[in-house]
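Please fill in the sequence for the structure shown.

STRUCTURE ENCODING:
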């Protein structure tokens, strides 16, 4: 919706101390993402609301509509100050910042740029469950369908560790080429 990665001085007459603006995720009321982004931009706050186009089919017609990539979330680029947080949270539809104590944890600009690049490329993609190293996962499909273990990373390669607790032993396989889901 707006420019990406732009650093802006805070509005509302707050003093600008030369602090860098950072990206934050804001939790939004369901189906209020576009309206909230529009209202924030009217306040002079830089937003990023990744949208995807989907074709919805009804019994009498088909229509392409733009939907948020991440339902109930949008990103704001602000200088972290109490005034800017209040300005964001006083906007209709905004619930809280995503992070510790609802104060928000900064999101690296590189991650925002990667989303922007992916959307601009028009390459097909789909949502995928968020997986963390150390999480229990299950293989979907292939000859190892249903095999469960702990997600591990070794030398940049994701691996599945299957444990035998009784004898305190484990086996590890490379997950390249396998689709996994959280257990």
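FILLED IN BY: designer on duty
SEQUENCE:
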């Amino acid at each position: 919706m707006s420019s990406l990665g732009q650093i802006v001085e805070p509005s509302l007459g707050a003093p600008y101390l030369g602090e860098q603006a950072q990206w934050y995720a804001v939790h939004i009321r369901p189906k209020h993402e576009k309206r909230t982004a529009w209202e924030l931009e009217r306040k002079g706050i830089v937003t990023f609301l990744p949208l995807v186009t989907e074709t919805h089919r009804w019994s009498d017609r088909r229509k392409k509509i733009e939907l948020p990539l991440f339902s109930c979330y949008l990103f704001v680029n602000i200088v972290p100050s109490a005034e800017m947080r209040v300005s964001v949270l006083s906007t209709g539809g905004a619930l809280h910042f995503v992070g510790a104590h609802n104060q928000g944890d900064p999101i690296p600009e590189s991650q925002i740029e990667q989303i922007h690049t992916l959307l601009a490329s028009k390459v097909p993609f789909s949502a995928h469950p968020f997986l963390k190293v150390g999480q229990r996962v299950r293989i979907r499909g292939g000859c190892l369908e249903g095999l469960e273990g702990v997600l591990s990373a070794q030398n940049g390669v994701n691996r599945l560790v299957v444990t035998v607790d009784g004898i305190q032993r484990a086996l590890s396989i490379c997950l390249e080429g396998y689709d996994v889901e959280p257990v």
